[in-house]
Amino acid sequence: MIEYIIKIKKKTRNIFQDRWVWKMAWRDGRHNFSRLFLFMAALVTGIAAVVAISSLNYSLQDELDRNAKELLGADLVINGNKKFDTIWTKLLDKANVKVAKDADMPSMVLFMNTGNSRLVKVTGLEGPFPFYGEMITKPADAYSKVQAGNFVMLDESLASQYEVSSGDSIKVGTKIFIVSGVVSKIPGGGALTSTLAPAVYVSLSALDSTGLIQFGSRIGYSIYVKTKTDKETQNLIEQIKPLTKKTGNSFETVEGRKEGLGESFRSVYRFFSLLAFVALILGCIGVASSVHIYAREKRDEVAMLRCVGSSGWQAFNIYFIQVFVLGIVGSIIGSALGVAIHQIIPVAFKEYLPLKIAFSVSWRAVGEGILIGAIVSVLFTVLPLVSVRFVPPLTVLRADFVPGRIFSKTRLTAIVLIILFPILAAAYQTKSFVSGGLFSAGIALALGCLVLVATSLLYLIRRFFPTKASFIFRHALSNLFRPNNQTRMLMVTIGLGAFIISILNIIQGSLLNQVEFKGNKNQSNTILFDIQTNQKDGVIKLVSENHLPLNQIVPIITCRLSELKGRTIEAIQKDTTTIPEWALTREYRVTYRDSLTGSEELVKGVLHHFEKGKKDSVFVTISERMQETLRVKIGDSLVFNVQGVPVKANICGIRKVDWPKDPPNFIFVFPKEALANAPQIWVAATRVDDPKQAAKFQQMLVMNFPNVSLIDLRLILSTVNELFEKIGLVVRFLALFSIVTGLVVLAGAVINSKFVRIKENVLLRTIGARTSQIVKITLIEYGYLGLFSALTALLLSLGGGWLLTKFFFEVQLAANFTELLIISIGVIVLTVLIGWFNSREVINTSPLQALRREG
Amino acid sequence: MADIVLQAEQLTKIYSSADKKLTVLDQVSFQTEQGTSLAIIGPSGSGKTTLLGLCAGLDVPTGGSISLMGFKLNAMSEDDRAYVRNQFVGFVFQNFQLLSTLTALENVMVPLELRGEKNIAGKAKDLLSRVGLADRLHHYPSQLSGGEQQRVAIARAFIASPRILFADEPTGNLDEENALQVTDLLFEMNREEKTTLVLVTHNLELAQKTERILQMKGGKIIKDSAMQIQSILHP
């Protein structure tokens, strides 16, 4: 016999040339669509989340680019906190540009028809504002009436909240105005601003006549400029730059506003896109997990194909083509779903977006979604599918044959790329490798914690298995440990979704708890400010007549820093970057008193009294955080510019301030009498629990002291709560993707283990189990799974919540266990439902049917 | 003398697990010629299936060498052995090993499709007719009885005109009537196609239908009917 010890020269065809693998992929795939559909669904959820968020970002950026000038309403805005000098008027006259003006300030207004009052932003307008975009009023002539005087317009939300309509009267300061209409859209003003501080519009000349502008009033003045060309804008900017430095004014350009807004929304986008990314990563894990089981089930068929001459790569290609094609289809469906969601988001959050976003499809986001889907389909399926290449043909003779571990370059490459993928993708999302790396490390840590908790729980169940429990409960529990059941994987994916929802709930609860007024009966919830010295006694009397407690009445003096540790602020600004600019140049509102309030604690130093006539006897205390920001210590000197008078002071103590508790609180506190003669206004704090009494008190305050403003902290609380709810909705929505991914994996695991389950059920029925018992076992099994996933989420969210509240938000953990319980029950019910839905066939198959199938 | 199709020399297979070594095949040597039939019999664990796996190139020996159609299988890569199998080898297994997602016709066509041949449906249909399944072409394995499945497997084994056919307990999962039908079919087609048949079985009745029987025990050939004849002819 001639022996051929040769390397066979056989025709090798790559995946594109080998028609047979495509044919086999189709033949085999047509019967596995239900299984492959599940892996596709895992991909769909992840891609949908990414595309929805990316689309929103791109359309927002596009709108910002298209309508940038509308954001400002002008080519340029010059701002200041005092009336503009004539030098400005001369400059703008000389430049021959169109101008409009406004001034705004916080103030109370009284709605005459209902007697309600509210703190609003009173805006005085003059001239043809806006130059770009449009001010939409109802009726259309509302603004022209305002310009004529004696009329006001209100933000639409405010008018609707206080049931005010055209023709009603509003008292602003000392003057009563007639409502000419409502403003439904105005350039520069977002609905978010309107929610937090709704505006009332009057003419600029009328604002002067309200008597609101007094000493200490915080007014912002603006001049809106329209130029003929961009070049003219640039020239004007060059001219006003030196003037702004001289007069302390600032200016804002269209580009600046666009960048600012773009940056704010980019930050929010990054946060949400990273959440979407978590959903994608979970989808990837779901994909890998489904394909892993799929590949394992195909072992026998691959072995047979190898027997009849298929190469390892050909076998691999058959299944790779299936998952890749379906991956692309899944990416397209996911992208379409993402586009659909993108159309809903602007509707749901229109009041928080600065621009109206038109119905559009961001093809860039769709393209990215499909590309990401394709990458995921390749990366996360190659690893589990590589095993197909090494299925030994001997398996056809010995099903239990396990080959030795084979080194595979493909497997190694896939592992490296899988590690790199989240880093690169996160870096792309955040536009930073460091952030991408950190985020990926964060995900790995979070998933690691989830795996650890899930593993520990499963270990504890095995260790302390309830051997005395009834058969049904024991059997359902032991089902969790069935091979290929993916219990840990399910606990991680479902748990992660539940974890995000739970931790959000904990943080929201903890933050709101800080400003709620349930605990301390003496804590103030109503702050009265802008009280003139000559009004002080009257306000105290009014508080007393209304039987309200006067928790605080403190003077406020506005000042700026002029020297720090013996050096001028200008000198420090020049050669240091360690102290932020804002801390050096900001206006400080300080007070004087000789004692601490309930919200303060002296952590270092002592309180010093003011000794009149003694040199260097002004000692101030500083809040802990500002002490760190300004890098000062006890004994360091500061010079304050108090309304033009330099006041030298030394730091004698450092206070830890619980800011939300018992306002007002202060950064700097001077000793009593040190600033007694400085121009000052007063702030009073009281507590009103009864809403009717609050309305009556506010009404009397506005009537008697129109310039005094009142902050109702309960109103702010409800606004903040509303905001939380809206943001929470997006986070919950994205967390839902994670839960859906988990449930898809669950459905996949149930379907993939269907035949094992049918066999078990047949066995159980053969030895006498009733259908009701099998149903109970199935339901309890999924109940356990949901319970352990929820428990994993709960444990981690409490741990994570504690860490975040203590070290990041620096507030006390306040978890609402009722709400957390509801979330957990929701997760359990959802898991049981999905498990039950996919197990119907398993439960309903009769033993005979199963035996026939076996035969 | 007819061509030697299969030649095993000092074939040894040792399985290692942890610190234990299990010799399942111990220096087995034999050869077989074109167009002959051979049965390997022996008790469970005697090494007969291991021998079949090595002879068909499904596994590689720990020691010794195996030549199939002149190709030294133990010196070839897995993919090259797959190529040799595709060109020269047919298989029939106890549990049929049909691809569950393919119809009877598609299952039969696979070996030729792998070769890249075209217009093969006619040949596959003819073969299925020959095994009595002309009306079951588009049925899936789950829609066929055990006997029918094994007949599809025989059709698949013969479609590529193999030079050698390996059959592992081909009647092991069949009732008496079906077993008889399948046996007859297998031997009939083997004769017609002049294929070498290597059969592993517990069934002595089936083994006796072959021209030669190798009896194995403890990983060794303890009796070779050909040798007995030789010894009778050349004492």
Structural description of this entry:
- The complex is a heterodimer of chains A (855) and B (235).
- Chain A has 855 residues and is α+β, with helices and mostly antiparallel strands.
- Among the domains of chain A are: 70-261, no CATH class; 465-517 and 713-855, no CATH class; 550-686, no CATH class.
- Chain A has 27 helices and 21 strands.
- In chain A, α10 (254-297) runs parallel beside α23.
- The longest helix of chain A has 44 residues, at 254-297.
- The radius of gyration of chain A is 35 Å and the shape is elongated.
- Chain A starts with 18 loop residues before the first helix and ends with a helix.
- The model of chain A has no long low-confidence stretch (mean pLDDT 80).
- Chain B has one domain: Rossmann fold (3-Layer(aba) Sandwich), CATH 3.40.50.300.
- Helices cover 37% and strands 28% of the residues of chain B.
- Chain B has helices spanning 48-55, 78-88, 104-115, 121-130, 146-159, 176-193, 204-207, 225-233; strands at residues 4-17, 20-33, 37-41, 63-68, 71-72, 89-92, 164-168, 196-200, 212-217, 220-224.
- In chain B, the strands form two sheets. A six-stranded mixed sheet of chain B has the order 6-7-8-3-9-10.
- The longest helix of chain B is centred in the last third of the chain and has 18 residues, at 176-193.
- The radius of gyration of chain B is 18 Å and the shape is globular.
- The model of chain B has no long low-confidence stretch (mean pLDDT 88).
Topology:
The complex is a heterodimer of chains A (855) and B (235).
Chain A: H1 19-29, H2 33-66, H3 68-72, E1 76-80, H4 86-95, E2 98-111, E3 117-126, E4 136-138, H5 142-148, E5 151-155, H6 156-161, E6 169-172, E7 175-185, H7 191-196, E8 199-203, H8 204-208, E9 220-226, H9 230-247, E10 250-253, H10 254-297, H11 299-307, H12 312-348, H13 363-389, H14 409-430, H15 433-463, H16 471-479, H17 487-515, E11 526-532, H18 536-545, E12 550-564, E13 567-568, H19 569-575, H20 581-585, E14 587-592, E15 600-605, E16 619-623, H21 624-630, E17 637-642, E18 645-657, E19 668-670, E20 681-686, H22 691-704, E21 709-712, H23 713-752, H24 754-766, H25 771-808, H26 817-844, H27 847-854
Parallel strand pairs in A: 3-8, 5-7, 14-19, 16-18
Antiparallel strand pairs in A: 1-9, 1-10, 2-3, 2-6, 2-9, 4-7, 5-8, 6-7, 11-20, 11-21, 12-13, 12-14, 12-17, 12-20, 15-18, 16-19, 17-18
Helix pairs in contact in A: 1-12, 2-10, 2-12, 2-13, 2-23, 10-13, 10-14, 10-23, 12-13, 13-14, 14-15, 15-17, 15-25, 16-25, 17-23, 17-25, 17-26, 23-26, 24-26, 24-27, 25-26
Chain B: E1 4-17, E2 20-33, E3 37-41, H1 48-55, E4 63-68, E5 71-72, H2 78-88, E6 89-92, H3 104-115, H4 121-130, H5 146-159, E7 164-168, H6 176-193, E8 196-200, H7 204-207, E9 212-217, E10 220-224, H8 225-233
Parallel strand pairs in B: 3-8, 3-9, 6-7, 7-8
Antiparallel strand pairs in B: 1-2, 1-4, 4-5, 9-10
Helix pairs in contact in B: 3-4, 3-5, 4-5, 5-6
